[in-house]
C-alpha cells in the first residue's frame, strides 16, 4: 500500500494523505541553518548544532506524536484548520505534501479556501522562509484570520528540557511591528537571537505561550485562535513563542501571499558588547536587512527558484538513464539527496535522533563522505580535516564531536578501534575524486590542540599504525570497546549476577580481536600504500604492503570458519560468529569487508562466504546482521544481546551492511545477486509495502526488523544512516561500475544480465564523461572493449584527458 507517489520530473515525493504510518519528514537547509519538517508541518530548526543552538522547541515522545512544529492556523467562521492538517487535525477537502530537494510544499483546502505553504531555507541564508498563499475558490467574499505559531527553544536543547528552575525565569522577547525577536540569553551573551517576522502589518501578536494557548491549553485549539483575538502578550520568563495575527479578506478568485521568515541572527564578535549599557536591547540591524531580502512574494519565489537551480546543478554531476525507472529515480535524485543530508547531520538530528544525544560521529562522517564527495569536494575536504583534528596523538580518536565547537566529546571518549581506518577510507575517496594531494600537507591538530599539529599525512600514518600497534593473541586487530558494530562489546564481564557489564582495564588485556577490522585494514591499507607511493614514501609503502599481506594470511588462518569468515574472538579467546557458537554463528560484517578486501579471492573463500550469506542470512526484506539471533543475554558480549531477537544489531536487517554484500558480490562477479541485494532494501523498489515498512519510502532507514522479530519488515531510524553513502557507492561505483580511481575514471559494470546496458553522465575532475554501456551478450560482469572519443583503449580505466571538457566513452560488456 502507498501513501503517495514519486514525481520524478519535479524531484519530489508527493504524499497524498496526512495519515502516513509515521511522520514522513524532509530536511531544509544545506549548510548552517537547518529545519526538520514532517508531512504534517511538525519539526524544528537549529543553527549549525541541534544540541547547542536550537531555535524552536520540539518534544520527542510527545502525545500525540509529532505535535509541535511551525504551524499556521486558518480560522474561518467556526472552522479552524491547518494546511498541514496538524495540530487541529480538522478534516481537509484536499491535502498534498510535496517533499522536494530542500523544500516542502503543502497544498490543501477547506470550504473552498485553498492554502499553499512552501517552507525552505534559501541558499546561503540562515533562515527558513514560509511562503503562504491563500486563494478564495468560492463565489463569495471570504473574511478569515491567519495565526502563525512557533514555540521558541531556549537554545541549548538539553538545558531546555531539564533546567526548569532557571528556564522559567530567563525568557525574553522584543516586538517591533511585524517582527518578533526571541532574545533569551542575549543579556548575557549578546551575540545571537531569533527573528520571526511576516512581510505585512499584523492585527495582533503573541509571544507568551500560556497567553496564546490559554491556561492548560493545547495547540490543537489555542485560546487566541478560538476567540479570533490576539492578546499582544509579551513573554517574560516561562515559554516564549511567536504568533502573528493577520485578518484577511479575499474576493472570489482572489489570492494573497504572505512571506514569513524565521531566522538566526548572530552579531560579529567585535559588535558583541556594543550597547552593553543599553539594558540588553538587541541590535536589530542585521535582522532588518534580512527582512528586506524577503519582503515580497517575488523575492521569496526568486529564492525558491535559486534553491531549485542549486539542486539541479548538484544532482547533474552524476546521472543515469536506463530501462529501470526506479534505478534512475534513486541514482539521479534520492540516493544523492540522502547523502547530502547524512553529510550535514551525521547521526545528530532526525525523528529518531534527538539532536542532543549524538553529534558528528568519527566513523559515521568518514563514511558519509564516500557518498558526498562528488557533490561538493571542498566541503568534504574541510570535513576530513575537522575530523582528523579530533584524533589523538596515538592515532585513536574521539568517537564523536560537536559540530558547533568541532571538539571531541569526552563523555563518549575513544576506544573504538575501527575509527582510525575510516579516516583513510574518507581521504582515499577524496583524493580519487579530486586528484588533490595537497590535503596531505595541511597542518592538522590532535585533540583540537593547534600546538600538537602535524601535517595531515602523518595523521594517516598514525591511523594505519594504530592497527598494527594493537594486535591481539591471534595477531588480529584488537577490537577495543567495539568496531563498526557498536553493540559488540567483547571485553566485558560482570561481577554480580544481574549487574550490567563492566569492561576490562588495560592491565587485564583487553584481548578481544576483530576479523572485521582485519578486513578494513586490508582494504583501506591498500589505499594507504598508494598514497605513500604517490608521496615517494617507498619504505613506508613496503612496510604497509608487508603488514597487509601478513594480515591476509592471519585472516585465512585464524579468521576463517570453514564456510564463512569468523566475526571476532572475545576476551577469553572464544570464537564469535562461528558454527561452534550456540547463537550468533554467522555475522554479515566480516563477509562484506573481507570479500571487498579480496581476502582469499583466489582460494575460493570469497565466493564461499557469499554463498553462506545467501544461505543463512537472506530474507525477502534484506539480509539480517547475524543468525541465529541471541536468544538470551550474554554479559560477555555487551549490548548486542540486550536487543530482542530480530531488532537492531541482534539480527535486524541492518541496512548499512547490505550494500557491503552487494559490493562484495560484484567482487566475485555475480551481478544478478548484487542487484537482488540492492533492490531488496531500496526505497523505490519497496514503496508498495509502505504499510509494512512504515518509514519514508524515499529514503533508507537504519534498520528493518528481521525475520526473528514479531514485526518482520518494519523499518526504524530513517534518514541518518551510513546506508545512504554505501548504497550510492554500491550502485554508482560497483553495479553501474563508474568508479573514480587515482589515475582516472574506471568503468567496470556488474549488472543484472537482463539489463541491455545504460547511459551515464559523470563529471570528474573538470571533465564531463558521457558513458554508454552495452550488454549485447547479457553477461553480469566484464568489459570486452572500451573506446574513448572513438579510439579503442586497453583496459577499462579512461586515461585522464588533457585540454578537453567533454569525453564520450563506449563500453561493450562481454
Ligand atoms: C545502537 C547502535 C548505535 C549506538 C550509538 C546503540 O544503542 O544500537 O546502533 O550505534 O547505540 O551509541
Ligand atoms: C549506528 C552508528 O551510528 C554507527 O556508527 C554504527 O556503526 C552502527 N550503528 C552499528 O552499530
From TrEMBL:
SUPFAM superfamilies recorded: Galactose mutarotase-like, Six-hairpin glycosidases
Gene Ontology MF: a single term: glycosyltransferase activity
One GO biological process term: carbohydrate metabolic process
Record-annotated Glycosyl hydrolase 94 catalytic domain positions: 310-737
Pfam families reported for this sequence: GH94_b-supersand, Glyco_hydro_94
Entry keyword annotation includes Electron transport: no
InterPro entries reported in the protein's UniProt record: 6-hairpin_glycosidase_sf, 6hp_glycosidase-like_sf, Gal_mutarotase_sf_dom, GH65_N, GH94_catalytic, GH94_Enzymes, GH94N_CBP, Glyco_hydrolase_94_b-supersand
Magnesium is among the record's keywords: no
Residues covered by the Glycosyl hydrolase 94 supersandwich domain: 11-294
CDD domains in UniProt: GH94N_CBP_like
Entry keywords, A to Z: Glycosyltransferase, Transferase
Name this polypeptide is given: Glycosyl transferase family protein
Organism the protein comes from: Roseburia faecis
Amino acid at each position: 500500500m502507498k501513501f503517495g507517489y514519486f514525481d520524478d520530473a519535479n524531484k519530489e515525493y508527493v504524499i497524498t494523505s496526512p495519515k502516513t504510518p509515521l511522520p514522513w519528514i524532509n530536511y531544509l537547509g544545506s549548510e548552517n541553518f537547518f529545519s526538520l519538517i514532517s508531512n504534517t508541518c511538525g519539526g524544528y530548526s537549529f543553527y549549525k548544532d541541534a544540541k547547542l543552538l536550537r531555535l524552536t522547541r520540539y518534544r520527542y515522545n510527545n502525545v500525540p506524536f509529532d505535535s509541535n512544529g511551525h504551524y499556521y492556523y486558518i480560522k474561518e467562521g467556526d472552522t479552524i484548520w491547518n494546511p498541514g492538517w496538524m495540530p487541529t487535525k480538522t478534516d481537509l477537502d484536499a491535502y498534498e505534501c510535496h517533499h522536494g530537494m530542500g523544500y516542502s510544499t503543502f497544498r490543501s483546502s477547506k470550504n473552498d479556501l485553498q492554502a499553499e505553504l512552501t517552507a525552505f531555507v534559501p541558499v546561503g541564508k540562515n533562515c527558513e522562509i514560509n511562503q503562504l498563499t491563500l486563494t478564495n475558490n468560492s463565489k463569495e467574499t471570504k473574511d478569515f484570520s491567519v495565526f502563525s505559531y512557533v514555540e521558541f527553544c531556549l537554545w541549548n536543547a538539553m538545558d531546555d528540557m531539564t533546567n526548569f528552575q532557571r528556564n522559567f525565569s530567563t525568557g525574553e522577547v522584543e516586538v517591533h511591528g511585524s517582527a518578533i525577536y526571541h532574545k533569551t540569553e542575549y543579556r548575557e551573551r549578546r551575540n545571537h537571537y531569533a527573528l520571526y517576522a511576516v512581510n505585512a502589518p499584523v492585527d495582533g501578536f503573541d509571544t507568551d505561550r500560556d497567553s496564546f494557548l490559554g491556561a492548560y491549553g493545547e495547540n490543537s485549539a489555542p485560546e487566541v485562535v478560538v476567540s479570533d483575538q490576539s492578546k499582544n502578550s509579551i513573554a517574560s520568563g516561562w515559554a516564549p513563542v511567536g504568533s502573528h495575527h493577520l485578518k484577511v479578506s479575499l474576493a472570489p478568485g482572489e489570492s494573497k501571499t504572505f512571506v514569513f521568515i524565521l531566522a538566526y541572527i548572530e552579531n560579529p564578535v567585535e559588535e558583541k558588547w556594543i550597547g552593553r549599557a543599553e539594558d540588553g536591547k538587541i541590535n536589530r540591524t542585521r535582522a532588518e536587512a534580512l527582512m528586506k531580502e524577503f519582503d515580497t512574494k517575488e523575492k521569496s519565489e526568486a529564492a525558491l527558484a535559486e534553491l531549485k537551480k542549486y539542486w539541479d546543478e548538484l544532482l547533474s554531476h552524476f546521472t543515469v538513464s536506463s530501462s529501470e525507472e526506479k534505478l534512475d529515480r534513486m541514482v539521479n535524485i534520492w540516493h544523492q539527496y540522502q547523502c547530502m543530508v547524512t553529510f550535514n547531520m551525521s547521526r545528530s538530528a532526525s525523528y529518531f535522533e534527538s539532536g542532543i544525544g549524538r553529534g558528528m560521529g568519527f566513523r559515521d562522517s568518514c563514511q558519509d563522505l564516500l557518498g558526498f564527495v562528488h557533490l561538493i569536494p571542498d566541503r568534504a575536504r574541510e570535513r576530513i580535516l575537522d575530523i582528523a583534528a579530533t584524533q589523538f596523538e596515538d592515532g585513536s580518536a574521539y568517537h564523536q564531536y560537536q559540530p558547533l565547537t568541532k571538539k571531541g566529546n569526552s563523555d563518549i571518549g575513544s576506544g573504538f578501534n575501527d575509527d582510525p581506518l575510516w579516516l583513510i577510507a574518507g581521504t582515499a575517496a577524496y583524493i580519487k575524486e579530486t586528484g588533490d594531494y595537497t590535503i596531505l600537507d595541511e597542518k592538522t591538530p590532535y585533540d583540537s590542540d593547534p600546538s600538537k599539529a602535524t601535517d595531515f599525512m602523518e595523521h594517516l600514518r598514525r591511523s594505519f599504525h594504530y592497527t598494527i600497534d594493537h594486535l591481539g593473541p591471534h595477531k588480529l586487530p584488537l577490537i577495543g570497546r567495539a568496531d563498526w558494530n557498536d553493540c559488540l562489546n567483547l571485553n566485558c564481564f560482570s561481577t554480580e549476577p544481574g549487574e550490567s557489564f563492566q569492561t576490562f582495564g588495560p592491565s587485564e588485556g583487553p584481548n578481544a580481536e576483530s576479523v572485521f577490522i582485519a578486513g578494513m585494514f586490508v582494504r583501506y591499507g591498500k589505499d594507504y600504500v598508494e598514497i605513500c607511493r604517490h608521496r615517494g614514501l617507498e619504505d613506508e609503502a613496503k612496510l604497509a604492503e608487508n603488514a597487509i599481506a601478513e594480515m591476509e594470511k592471519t585472516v585465512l588462518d585464524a579468521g576463517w570458519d570453514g564456510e564463512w569468515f569468523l566475526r571476532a574472538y572475545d576476551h577469553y579467546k572464544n570464537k564469535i560468529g562461528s558454527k561452534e557458537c550456540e547463537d550468533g554463528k554467522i555475522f554479515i560484517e566480516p563477509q562484506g569487508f573481507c570479500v571487498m578486501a579480496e581476502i582469499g579471492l583466489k582460494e575460493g573463500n570469497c565466493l564461499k562466504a557469499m554463498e553462506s550469506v545467501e544461505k543463512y542470512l537472506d530474507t525477502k526484506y534484506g539480509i539480517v546482521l547475524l543468525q541465529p539471533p541471541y536468544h538470551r543475554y550474554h554479559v560477555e558480549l555487551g549490548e548486542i544481546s540486550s536487543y530482542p531477537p530480530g531488532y537492531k544489531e541482534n539480527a535486524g536487517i541492518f541496512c548499512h551492511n547490505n550494500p557491503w554484500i552487494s559490493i562484495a558480490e560484484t567482487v566475485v562477479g555475480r551481478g544478478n545477486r548484487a542487484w537482488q541485494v540492492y533492490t531488496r532494501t531500496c526505497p523505490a523498489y519497496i514503496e508498495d509495502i509502505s504499510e509494512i515498512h512504515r518509514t519514508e519510502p524515499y529514503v533508507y532507514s537504519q534498520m528493518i526488523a528481521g525475520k526473528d522479530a514479531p514485526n518482520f519488515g518494519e523499518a526504524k531510524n530513517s534518514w541518518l544512516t551510513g546506508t545512504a553513502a554505501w548504497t550510492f557507492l554500491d550502485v554508482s561505483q560497483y553495479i553501474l561500475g563508474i568508479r573514480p580511481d587515482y589515475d582516472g575514471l574506471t568503468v567496470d559494470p556488474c549488472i543484472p544480465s537482463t539489463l541491455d546496458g545504460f547511459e551515464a553522465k559523470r563529471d570528474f575532475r573538470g571533465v564531463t564523461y558521457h558513458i554508454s554501456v552495452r550488454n549485447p551478450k547479457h553477461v553480469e560482469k566484464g568489459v570486452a572493449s572500451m573506446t574513448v572519443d572513438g579510439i579503442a583503449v586497453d583496459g577499462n580505466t579512461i586515461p585522464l584527458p588533457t585540454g578537453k571538457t567533454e569525453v564520450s566513452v563506449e563500453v561493450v560488456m562481454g
